[in-house]
């Protein structure tokens, strides 16, 4: 698909725990599916460590390349949660307590110890705007086209609806999947011919091996008519390949 920049996005997963394998990334799928419903295509995903220079370099590059950048992780109360401060530096913003975010947390922890770690979750770029958190009340934030979200999947999932009115939606990205008992190599050449014919459709082939080998063919596009035509050709290819095998 050839989409305009404003209908593209990148995701930056931040955290040593993801890179080490101790934690499995679920947020990429959640964000990508949510954006797909809005006609926003995720074009790139990166996983980076809790290192300030890498966070700044990565996010700064991606925000210029794509319409939106979503980061997850690194906005908690501990010493290695450095995403908010890194984003502040990237935008040349003061890293401060956001008055509204601080007030929300102060009220939430009024009968508990509102310690320095908890206060830290209210620190962000001075002119950032909040992304409400209905679960733990520690807000995320956004500045320009960068949206900073927590790493805990259930909390992130609860916060995404608060961004519905902030995303400039395009045409919904439609998807069709065909599960075939064919080996990927047996249809590769013909599939490439179909792909070259439909340049506004992304055709992916994903081999698997259960009891026998097979391939799932996935077609994605915002063009419903062409997607339907492409599906017919792919199904015909599968039918002919099976009859000749």
Could you characterize the architecture of this molecule?
This protein has 245 residues and is an alpha/beta fold. It folds into two domains: 5-163, MoaB/Mog-like domain (Molybdenum Cofactor Biosythetic Enzyme, Chain A); 174-244, Alpha-Beta Plaits, CATH 3.30.70. It has helices at 16-20, 27-37, 52-65, 83-90, 99-108, 116-120, 153-159, 184-197, 224-244, and strands at residues 8-14, 41-48, 68-72, 95-97, 123-125, 129-131, 140-143, 146-149, 174-180, 202-209, 213-221. The strands form three sheets. It has a six-stranded mixed β-sheet with strand order 2-1-3-8-7-6, with helices on both faces. Strands 9-11-10 form a three-stranded antiparallel β-sheet, covered by helices on one side. A hairpin with a 2-residue loop joins strand 7 (140-143) and strand 8. The longest helix has 21 residues, at 224-244. The radius of gyration is 22 Å and the shape is elongated. The two termini are 32 Å apart. The mean pLDDT is 94.
Kindly summarize this structure in a few lines:
This protein has nine helices and eleven strands. With 245 residues, it is an alpha/beta fold.
């Amino acid at each position: 698909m050839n989409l305009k920049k404003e209908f593209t996005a990148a995701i930056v997963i931040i955290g040593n725990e993801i890179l080490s394998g101790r934690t499995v990334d679920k947020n990429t799928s959640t964000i990508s599916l949510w954006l797909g419903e809005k006609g926003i295509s995720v074009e790139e995903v990166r996983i980076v460590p809790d290192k300030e220079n890498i966070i700044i370099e990565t996010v700064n590059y991606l925000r210029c390349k794509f319409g939106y950048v979503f980061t997850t992780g690194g906005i908690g109360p501990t010493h290695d949660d450095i995403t908010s401060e890194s984003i502040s530096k990237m935008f040349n913003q003061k890293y401060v307590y956001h008055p509204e975010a601080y007030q929300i947390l102060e009220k939430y922890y009024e009968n508990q110890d509102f310690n320095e770690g908890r206060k830290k979750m209210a620190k962000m770029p001075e002119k950032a705007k909040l992304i409400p958190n209905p679960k733990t009340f520690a807000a995320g934030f956004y500045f320009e086209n960068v949206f900073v979200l927590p790493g805990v999947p259930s909390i992130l999932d609860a916060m995404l609806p608060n961004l519905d009115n902030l995303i400039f939606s395009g045409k919904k990205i439609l998807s069709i999947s065909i599960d075939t008992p064919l080996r990927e190599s047996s249809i590769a050449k013909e599939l490439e011919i179909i792909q070259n014919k439909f340049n506004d459709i992304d055709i992916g082939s994903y081999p698997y091996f259960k009891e026998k080998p097979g391939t799932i063919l996935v077609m994605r596009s915002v063009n419903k008519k062409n997607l339907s035509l492409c599906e017919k050709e792919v199904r015909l290819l599968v039918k002919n390949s099976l009859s000749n095998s």
